[in-house]
Amino acid sequence: MPILRRILTRLLVGIGVLWGAATLTFLAVHLIPGDTALLILGGPDARPTAETLAQVRSDYLLDQPFIVQYGSYLGNLLQGDLGQSYRLRLPVTDAIGQQIGATAALAAAAVAVALPLTLAVAVLSAQRANWIRSIVSGVEVVLAATPTFIIGFALLIVFSFSLRWFPIGGNQGMAALVLPALTLGLAIFGTLSQVLRNELEDVLEQPFILTARSRGMRDLPVRMRHALRHAAIPVMTMSGFVVAALLGGSVIVETLFSRQGIGSLTLASVYNKDLPVIIGIVLLSAAVYVVVNLVIDLLYTLIDPKVVTA
Predict the structure, then answer these.
(1) Torsion-angle region of residue 89: left (phi > 0), alpha (psi -120 to 50) or beta?
(2) What is the DSSP letter of 46?
């Protein structure tokens, strides 16, 4: 029952987060200067007539007060209707559905790079000689502090322009996915590896580790079977950071490598003030964040039942 109560509490909090995200985004987009009706008709170059502009404002309730527009959008949202893209003339769910596969593949590939690399480097370098820890720590700091687009540029210069091993951009084939995934994965690795290695060094000082070693257990099994389990909790807490890094980084990476996906769709929607798509993407991001944190919260009890979550 405590677990069920915790799930229900988290779900209620999640609904509040989704409502807050939709409301803040709706307000922020309305504060951006510009004529939305003009953008819907193709911008100033389209030179629409005053009658056409008036008709569009009426169709999309743009001539109504803010509270009427907000109430109408929230009512449709409660019925599962995210609206229609101003720019693409498609339902928002279709517009997002056409792009989400490419971003999901990019995110999965980035996680496949970041997690094994984090585990290997942290486990093998914790409590080693000072020169090894200094080198590893230096690399981690550089990767964590370097903007994602700089990492991407560096990879492009070396592996695309100089060595010509991978294509410069696009969505065609696995080869086109390698450099974008490395760009996102290395940025995440820099932060996660620092956290996991520091936790491992603390755990390796604990009495139960000394007891395991006194029984003749070799170093690597001690690290993998005993220390890693206890050191993993702070890293799991950072799952929200990983989700945010993947979603935020996809905007930069997809633009840099000319890839289709949610990131490119977000950038184009913000530029064109395509409110329904922007709010749809924000809701999707918030929903992913809520679900990931709910799953991690439940996993705490499996990894360490002593952990008490609110």
Answers:
(1) left
(2) G
Strand partners, 84: 91
DSSP assignment, residue 81?
A: -
Q: Is 100 buried (19+), middle (13-18) or exposed (0-12) by CB count in 10 A?
A: middle
Task: Please name the amino acid found at residue 126.
Answer: A
Rounded-to-integer distance, Cα 281 and Cα 8, Å: 25
As a whole number of angstroms, the distance between CA 136 and CA 131 comes to 9
- Which tokens in the block code for residue 142? 């550089």
Q: What is the DSSP string of 132-186?
A: HHHHHHHHHHHHHHS-HHHHHHHHIIIIIIIS--S-SS-SSTTHHHHHHHHHHHH
What would the pLDDT profile of 63-75 be if each residue is shown by its tens digit?
A: 888 888 888 888 8
Are 39 and 273 contacting, i.e. CB atoms less than 8 angstroms apart? Answer: yes
Task: Using the structure block, give the residue that is written with the tokens 């490395």.
Answer: 182
What tokens does 133 get? Answer: 């820890």
Task: Please state the pTM of the whole predicted model.
Answer: 0.78
Rg from Cα positions in the chain: 24
Residue 237 has pLDDT above 80, yes or no: no
Phi, psi of 256 (to 5 degrees): -60, -40
The pLDDT value recorded for residue 310 is 47
Residues 6 or more apart in contact with residue 309 via CB below 8 angstroms: 6, 297, 300, 301
Provide the greatest CA pair distance for the chain.
86
- Category of 173 on φ-ψ map: left (φ > 0), alpha (ψ -120 to 50) or beta: left
